[in-house]
Amino acid sequence: MIPRPKGARAARLRQRKYEILRQLKIPEDGLPGSLALTHTKCGKPSCHCARGEGHPGWMLGFMEEGTQRVMRIPSDWVDEVRQRVEAGRAFLEAVKEVFVANAHLVALSRRQRTR
To answer: Which of 72, 84, 106, 108 could form a disulfide with 5 if both were Cys (CB 3.0 to 4.6 A apart)?
Structure first.
């Protein structure tokens, strides 16, 4: 069993960790990845996109089991999808912060053990 580290730094890390854990809630509608505006060409030689930037369209990109997935998002869904992506990202950042605090606490325990 890893001993619990002592000291002000350890106390601050534990306090921050438990504060995050108390507030942590999996967002019910959270989404992974990122939302991006892309431009594609339809392939019709007579279309304006053949000479220009292309047709605008929104895409949600995310990783699934090591594979990059991309799905088209209707333009009238963009605001809601953006909020759901931000909720997913905030959740992942909070989890990451808890794990990093745990790693620092293990390092502090190890240093105290070697003293």
So the answer is: 108
pTM, two decimal places: 0.81
**Could you write out the DSSP letters of every residue in 29-63?**
T---SEEEEEEE----TTSGGGTSS-EEEEEEEEE
Question: Average pLDDT in the 8-36 region?
Answer: 95
Domains of the chain, residue spans: 8-114
Residue indicated by tokens 């002592």: 6
| CA 5 – CA 19 distance, rounded (Å) | 18
> Coil, helix or strand for 7?
coil
Q: Residue 22 above 70 pLDDT?
A: yes
Listing DSSP states for 74-108 in one string gives -GGGHHHHHHHHHHHHHHHHHHHHHHHHHHHHHHH
